[in-house]
């Protein structure tokens, strides 16, 4: 009797189903990974933005203002003496929400000595990713130290 070497239809279907399940799990895992990465990158961008503004102030010897705009979801910095001219800005990535308990915008003044004054009695703001339910809280102390907590 001659035996054909090969796979049966059932064996092929089982392999295809296993590959499909593994692909589905992999796609779900990597999608969550990319979303978490988006939030982490935004956290790093806000920290770098604050550090750049602090460097502008201490290097130039002039006060700079940081404006956190909840409505348009961006941050910008400008010289305190020329508030109409933007020196640097940072927009949030798609899918992230900027929140704070102040009005539409809150403003910090980064002094030439590195200390920070809050113009609105508000020192905290958050960035939230509603897809994964994570929030990053930012707090700028009067000494000019930015504290970051991921929740």
Helix content: 25-40%
Query: How many separate domains make up the residues?
Result: 1
**CATH homologous superfamily assignment:** minor pseudopilin epsh domain
Summarize model confidence as the mean pLDDT: 88
Q: Characterize the biggest β-sheet.
A: 5 strands, antiparallel
| Count of alpha and pi helical runs | 1
**Succession of helices and strands:** HEEEEEEEEE
Rg, Cα atoms, Å: 25 Å
The first-to-last residue Cα distance is 68 Å
List segments where confidence is low: pLDDT < 50 over at least 5 consecutive residues. Answer: none
Kindly report the CATH topology.
minor pseudopilin epsh fold
Q: Strands of the biggest beta sheet: in what spatial order?
A: 3-2-1-5-6
Beta-strand fraction estimate: 25-35%
Could you say which structural class the secondary elements and strand pairing correspond to?
alpha+beta
